[in-house]
Amino acid sequence: MHPDMPTNRILVIEEEPLLALDIEDILTEARFGEVTHYRNVTHAQPHFDELSGFSLAIVEARFGAPEVIGFTERLAKAG
Question: Which residues contact residue 52 at a Cβ distance below 8 angstroms, ignoring those fewer than 6 apart?
Answer without folding.
Answer: 75, 78, 79
